[in-house]
Amino acid sequence: MTRSVSRTAPGKVNLYFAVGPLRADGYHEVASLYAATDILERVTVSAGEQPGITQSMSVAPGSPVDQQVVAGAFDPALVPLDESNLAYRGAAAVLGEKDLSTTDIAVNLHIEKAVPVAGGMGGGSADAAAAMKAMNAYLVEAGLATSELPLERLLELAAPLGADVPFALLGGLAVGAGVGEKLTPMEIPEGVEPLRFGFVPSTSGLSTPAVFRELDDGRAAGRYPAPDAALEVPRDLIEALTTEAPLANRLPKIAALLRNDLAAPAVTLLPELELTLGSEAAKPQVAASFVSGSGPTVIKILF
Ligand code: ATP
């Protein structure tokens, strides 16, 4: 019998991203406010023929990645279907926790991409999270494990895979401390009108390490403001996102409190971003336009 299990995980936007100084270990402390988008990565684990894990990929029709494909701006070579793939690493982490190796099973991981690649929306991280959830369920279905790992354990296994992987498991709205992996979920009470996002994928990608490097170099040269002494997501922003007043009344405050320390370095590396940000912000249905994480996808908050 062919078994297959699919799970999804969301791409993210950072509504707030304050970056501390470069640490000795090469990472940065951040104060991040993550919001999940309704753009979902889907990973399917299905029974294969040969021992080991094979991988395949497709593009979700109508998704932002599909827009990039249509614009001739999607390079599948950017997503390596090998052991460095974050979906593979997520699946392998779950297997390891069950004392199984990748040759103890015979499966294919199919990744359906919807989140722009190298776009600052954590698409690879979402693949890792979706693969962890799918493999977790698959092992039980295939009789290779008696129970699923609890979410708390998945979150611990996720952190070493990347700062954004724990949030991709959790979704919703959350404050991220540490390098972004120490999460405090923010409850959005029922009845609170959610933000509506629009996405303008770029025709080129930006490398996250390169954008952080530009920030560090630019700070050292006085081109960007020095890091804040205390890294904190403003309470006012969280309150504006989680209170029941009509969204239209809350949007000006939300727009004024958005922040991303990586935006200026991203614009330095990809100057045409400034044009996109300006032209999107000028549209009547757009309350704010900004770069998420290291960019270059431009995110719009819609009225
Ligand atoms: P983040 O904002 O989390 O830093 P991003 O959204 O800018 O990341 P991703 O699409 O997650 O960028 O991928 C960045 C790089 O990670 C890619 O260029 C690719 O080399 C590598 N990668 C590994 N696995 C994947 C995957 N499943 N999907 C996309 N990229 C992957």
From TrEMBL:
Summary of the function given for this chain in its UniProt record: Catalyzes the phosphorylation of the position 2 hydroxy group of 4-diphosphocytidyl-2C-methyl-D-erythritol.
MF (Gene Ontology): 4-(cytidine 5'-diphospho)-2-C-methyl-D-erythritol kinase activity; ATP binding
InterPro entries, per database record: GHMP_kinase_C_sf, GHMP_kinase_N_dom, IspE, Ribosomal_Su5_D2-typ_SF, Ribsml_uS5_D2-typ_fold_subgr
Domain of life per record: Bacteria
Pathway(s) annotated for this protein in UniProt: Isoprenoid biosynthesis; isopentenyl diphosphate biosynthesis via DXP pathway; isopentenyl diphosphate from 1-deoxy-D-xylulose 5-phosphate: step 3/6
Catalysis: reaction(s): 4-CDP-2-C-methyl-D-erythritol + ATP = 4-CDP-2-C-methyl-D-erythritol 2-phosphate + ADP + H(+)
EC number of this enzyme: 2.7.1.148
Gene3D superfamilies documented for this protein: 3.30.230.10, GHMP kinase, C-terminal domain
Homology family: Belongs to the GHMP kinase family. IspE subfamily.
Binding site for ATP: 116-126
Keyword Plastid: no
Pfam families: GHMP_kinases_N (PF00288)
Biological processes, Gene Ontology terms: isopentenyl diphosphate biosynthetic process, methylerythritol 4-phosphate pathway; terpenoid biosynthetic process
Top-level enzyme category: transferase
Classification via HAMAP family: IspE (MF_00061)
Active site, renumbered: 12, 164
UniProt-recorded name of the protein: 4-diphosphocytidyl-2-C-methyl-D-erythritol kinase
